[in-house]
Amino acid sequence: MVQIFYSLIYMSVRVRFAPSPTGALHIGGVRTALYNYLFAKQQGGAFILRIEDTDRTRYVPGAEQYIIETLKWVGLLPDEGVGFGGDKGPYRQSDRKEIYHHYARELVQRGHAYYAFDTPEELALRKQAEENFTYNQQTRGGLSNSLTLSETEVESRLKAGTPFVIRLRVEPGRAIHVQDLIRGEVVFQSGELDDKVLLKADGMPTYHLANIVDDHLMEITHVIRGEEWLPSTAHHVLLYEGFGWTDTMPVFSHLPLILKPVGNGKLSKRDGAKFGMPVFPLEWEGATPEESFSGFRDTGFLPEAAINFLALLGWHPGGEQEIFSLQDLIQAFSIDQISKSGARFDYEKAKWFNQKYIQAANNEVLASYIRPLVNSKGYEATDEYLEQVAALMKERVTFLPDFVETGYYLFEPVREYDKETLQKKWTPPIAEIFNELTGMVATFEPFNGPALEEAVKHFIHEKAVKPGDILPLLRIALAGTMKGPAVFDMAVALGRKETVRRLQALSELG
RNA sequence: GGCCCGUUCGUCUAGGGGUUAGGACGCAGGAUUUUCAUUCCUGUAACACGGGUUCGAUUCCCGUACGGGCUACCA
């Protein structure tokens, strides 16, 4: 006992993120990965990526790569796992088939599991006949399994290759206590539990078996997973008991769900299209447009912003800080401050975080994010110019693509002029002054923001017109719109030649 | 239906037997900026309901309602 206590204290923390490669990884999965990562790093432990691909019918090619790419994008790099090495592998469950067979058989030998020969069709019929039919301690006596069949019959069926599953043998009359770090003690009555399938007829384990065997073999100390696993945790405890692994059973924490922005229920992949927002980390190209999704990355989120947003969806350290770097999060994180109730996906808040992170990012970093967007539009620009664009636009954008979309006029001629303002401001006398101003700008030295501004204002004063008569026109000439960066900063960024060209273009139009 | 979990402003949340129930997003108004945005200030708005326990409950307990999850040879 003393020894167990000792080992629990000094055993280093090991947590796992164990997604199933059935398609694009849901944003809730990213949050689960994040909480696991934060806990591991804070405790000086290991963060492990395990791929749970035991359902061959739901396997989707590319999903595993998607998961890995997501973790890389958000910066949650596993210490061990598929694609990351480690000495407790293999970390892909389909590569561990024999291991599960071995343990499933061992559990049968220990009397905590049994062979069952009932076919899916037979069970489906039973369910049709009896509405609440479950395979459990009440019903198994009347079914076809190694508890009802003679030993020789079982032997011969196994020898003949009759398909079978292995089921957990749950005995009634016990209270199973689960200690959850988020929810406290949760109690289940064993009499209400069914005899879960552990090993399927195709030879693959179910989640229940695989997750216990792997967590044990991989020396996982803490299981941090979604709330949907809470009801089956009682079965998991029974498995630890059955194997005699209770001393090293991991500590459980069941996370609250992420809910739809409006309406009832948990956030689903369809909500992305429905509400016009990403619910996946990365873009995903499915077989059809309906199965293809956009993600946070291609929408133009900074990974740091996505992480900050996700971290606070269901957890809060208690202070009034809102902006947390990954390092801040590692320091501040604690499992007992995770909320118990589900959190609605608040996209407005996500946008706010992104805006904040873009504002705070330095121009060089932003330029590197803008570069691919610029290239894909076919624009040409130097890195130095992109840094200027970043400086000009960073306080006016929400998403990365806004730099080249809202600010397109920093890369190509004005496409469309604000007619309303033009109609109001463009009068023959003003046009004449404007032309004169164009001539001045063409030769004015030095061509920098403050000097230019000073000179133009002086010019306006001399002509006895109001700044409001000229400045808006200048802006429209350069950007076409009444929104945007300071006019003189724009002029300097565009350069003298382009500025003059645009001023002339407006005159010709007028 | 059964089992399990939950419930503080519209949203994310802090708090906790006695508080003007705090912050953030959003929204509204204002200041700054002769654009827009940023920034700053102000405002808006919450303890689901009913019983206990208590001198006192939003906080503790029990119910109810509502919401959610699970109930597959899916994870």
Descriptive notes:
The protein has 510 residues and is mainly α. Among the domains are: 12-81 and 256-360, HUPs (Rossmann fold), CATH 3.40.50.620; 361-406, Helicase, Ruva Protein, domain 3, CATH 1.10.8.70; 413-510, Arc Repressor Mutant, subunit A (Orthogonal Bundle). It contains 22 helices and twelve strands. The chain has helices spanning 2-10, 27-42, 63-74, 97-109, 120-129, 151-159, 207-217, 233-243, 270-275, 296-299, 303-311, 326-332, 347-360, 363-376, 383-393, 402-405, 419-425, 428-443, 449-462, 467-479, 487-494, 496-509; strands spanning 14-17, 46-49, 80-81, 113-116, 165-168, 175-180, 184-189, 197-199, 222-226, 251-255, 258-259, 343-344. The strands form five sheets. Strands 1-2-3 form a three-stranded parallel β-sheet. Strands 4-5-8 form a three-stranded antiparallel β-sheet. It has a two-stranded antiparallel ribbon with strand order 6-7. Helix 20 packs across helix 22 (496-509). The longest helix is centred in the N-terminal third of the chain and has 16 residues, at 27-42. The N and C termini lie far apart (90 Å). The relative contact order is 0.08. The structure holds one RNA strand of 75 nucleotides.
Structural class assignment:
mainly alpha
Number of distinct beta strands: 12
CATH-defined architecture of the domain at 12-81 and 256-360: 3-Layer(aba) Sandwich
How much of the sequence is in beta strands?
5-15%
Helix content: 40-55%
